[in-house]
User: What shape does this take?
Amino acid sequence: MRHNKKFNHLGRTAAHRAAMLSNMATSLIMHKRITTTVAKAKALKKYVEPLITKSKQDSTNSRRVVFSYLQDKHAITELFSTISPKVANRPGGYTRIIKTGNRLGDNAPMCFIELVDFDENMMKAVAKKAPRTRRSKKSSAPATAAPTVEEAPKAE
Assistant: This one.
C-alpha cells in the first residue's frame, strides 16, 4: 500500500530522479526559465525553492549544502550572487508555473517554470506602477493655491 507516500516518482529510479531534478534546477538557475511537463515542474518547484531559501544566508555551510544538491560551481555562483539578493525580501514563492498547452507528440501537458523576480515582462508592469504615490491633503493644498493667481484687468 502507498499510505503517506505522496511525492511523484516521475517513472524513474531514485538516483535517476535526483540527477534529473539536479540538472533541471541548474538549468532553471542559469537560464531563469525552462520549458518542461507540468509534473516535472511541480517536482522541480519542491526541489529548488528550499535551495533558494538556503541561498539567502551566504555562508560556507549553506554553499556546501546547496552544492550537495546541484553539483555545479557556476550555478552556485549564479544563485548566491545574482538570485539571492533579488529574492532577499521575498518570504517564499520564488518560482512560477505557467501552463502552455499539450505537447504534440504524446499530448503531455506542458508548461514553463520561471523565477518570479526575473521575468522581464512582469518587471516592466511593476515598474510602471511604481511612480504612483499618494499625497496628503496638507501638501496638496498649498500646491493648488499657488497656480490660481488671477491677473488684474488691464485698463484701456
Summary: The CA atoms of residues 25 and 32 lie 10 Å apart. The chain has six helices and three strands. The mean pLDDT is 87.
